[in-house]
Each structure stands twice: as C-alpha cells, then as structure tokens.
Amino acid sequence: MFPAVETDEQASVFSMPRWGYSLTKTLVHARLGDVERSQAEQDTADLYRPAHLSRYAAHTGVHRALSVVKSGDVNTGLDLARETLADLPEDHRSTVLQGFVSEVKAAARAT
Predict the structure, then answer these.
(1) 103 vs 78, 98, 99, CA distance in Å?
(2) Residues 62-109: pLDDT tens digits?
(3) What are the phi and psi torsion angles at 65 (to 5°)?
C-alpha cells in the first residue's frame, strides 16, 4: 500500500493528499461494514481536508451516513444523508454524491 502524500497540488494517481486517501478508505470500510475503521478514516479526512472543499466534506458525511446505517441505526443514517445533501448548494450536488445517497438508501432497505 502506498503512503498518503501531503501536497497542495491537485490529487492524481501518483500523488494523493492525506484527506483524499482517507476519503477513499472510509467508503471502502463502510461498504464492507467495518463501521469502526470507516469512522476513524472519516475523522482523519475531516481533520486534513482543506475547509474550502465543501463538496468533499459532503462525501465524508454521506460515507458517515452509510456507516451509521450499516451499524443498524437506519433512521439516523438516512437523516444524516438527507441533511448532508440538503446543506450543499444545488451546483455541488454531483451525480457521484447523489449516487452515494442512493447507496445509503439501498443499505437502509436491506437492513
């Protein structure tokens, strides 16, 4: 596994900032149902992500919602996903982010 690299440059395949690496890991852990590890990576992503990247903060929030649903707290997870999306300006609600919200809803139905 490659170590996270701290940089002010754009993230790429060759260079990913610590927050981006944690953002990726939090989704993987949430999907696998490893809530504890997912939440630890969410905290790391929140700690290192620059404040002006609100869209990526929303990604972390939706990953958090998926973790909460996977932990069995379906209503809280669904509320968190809805609130996270609602807090973003319309032009920041990307297709990818909306897909993550759909994934949270699907996980809730499966629980």
Answers:
(1) 10, 9, 6
(2) 999 999 999 999 999 999 999 999 998 888 888 999 999 999 999 999
(3) -60, -40
The residue type of 49 is R
Question: 3-state DSSP call for residue 70?
Answer: helix
Task: Please indicate, yes or no, whether the overall pTM of this predicted structure exceeds 0.70.
Answer: yes
Average pLDDT over residues 21-47: 93
Alpha helices in the chain (DSSP H): 18-32, 35-48, 54-70, 74-86, 95-110
Residue type at 79 in one-letter notation: D
- Tally Cβ neighbours within 10 Å of residue 96: 10
Residue 69: helix, strand or coil by DSSP?
helix
Taken as a whole, the chain contains a residue count of 111
CB-based contacts of 45: which residues, under 8 Å, 6+ apart? 19, 20, 22, 23, 26, 56, 60
Q: What is the DSSP letter of 91?
A: G
CA distance 13 to 106: 30
3-state SS class at 34 = coil
